[in-house]
Sequence to fold (417 residues):
Amino acid sequence: MPLAHLPPPASTRIALRVSPAAERAIRRGHPWLFDQSITHQSSPENTNRPGDLAVIFDSKRAFLAIGLYDPTSPLRVRILQARQPATINTDFFKTRLTNAILDRYDLVDPARTNAYRLVHGENDGLPGLVIDRYADTLVLKLYTPAWVPHLPQVLEALLALTSLQPAARILLRFSRALLKQPRNLHGLADGLILHGPPLTGPLLFQENGLTFEADPILGQKTGFFLDQRDNRARLEAHTAGKSVLNVFAYTGGFSLYAARGGATHITSVDLSAPALAAAERNFAHNQHIPAVATAQHETLAADAFAALEQFAHQNRTFDVVILDPPMFAHTQAQVEAALHAYQRLTRLGLAVLAPGGLLVQASCSSRISAEDFFALLHYAANEASRPLDEITRTTHPADHPITYPEGAYLKCMFARA
Ligand code: SAH
Fold:
């Protein structure tokens, strides 16, 4: 049992009182409590450990919510349940996991897509915990050390549900923030196999009938950007006979769909050479599809901004330009710079877009609203005298449900210019 050595969750609970504003937010179902909103706590800060259960009381000293305490983060408590008391144990996790599993029935056609998000953290009542499925492997990723003491119960719950949700292998991943605090990981290694055989190579899976590989240990997120599945499918319909530039291409998700859609030339740009090597292999995995076999695919490992400037300098244009950058605004202080970066990307993208071409631009910064982002794209395009004729605006796919405002991060526009 790879988790047998973990210290069990503390048996005593931390009692908290909170500000009136936080009380209202929690009552409405908001999943977060920040340190600044705590007005009283039953035990001194330095005696509390990640994963201790915190019970939040309202101004009348009645139960308000129960959640996971994390002394290492200003996001001090992630709420597991509000309004009604709950016992946090294997059964509790089983119920939450069952709901998440049932919510995803019929969302994808299993004959064509066997990779999707099974548990989307806060939005599935399991804040800070994500589970992605890649074929028969589940990748469980933690975003707070508060989950570590509860892992044995989460695993037990998952294994009890394998008739609903078969899992030949379960693999554990930690967020970057967690990897910086090894003490709270109690010796657990990133990439640990919690169940099933070790991983001997890349994980192969199907997305809309295309074969992709994911590296769930060294890859970004849990190995693939599952949240862009619907946008990739939308793109496919616009690529017949076109030249396509896919900037921030990662492992070539948009590029493969463009190829199957009939694009003649595809250029994938990314800073990461290993990601582009995987993009090449993803093309190799799909050579049985005639359109993929005939499409010309080239990769360029470079900074996106520099590459776009270079193409413009060479007067190279493309019929379709995709801009899907990483999160630019990690903190509120970075929002201003992020807005400038998005604007600069729009300008550079339009400079290499053939007249009447298709621009696809996305943002995954939750601190920037969809409204601000889309307005910014129009502003930048107008400045460049390439006004955008919108085709569509999109958000999250159905396996990434959003239940609270800060949970919304993905927005994307398809437009002609
Ligand atoms: N569109 C991809 C996901 C993109 S994620 C998909 O559908 O799978 C963002 C990508 O941007 C990552 O692969 C990262 O390596 C890359 N990246 C980050 N900074 C970059 C930069 N300055 N120039 C080019 N690529 C960059």
Q: What stands out?
A: The chain has three domains: 14-82, 90-203, 206-214+226-416. The mean pLDDT is 96.
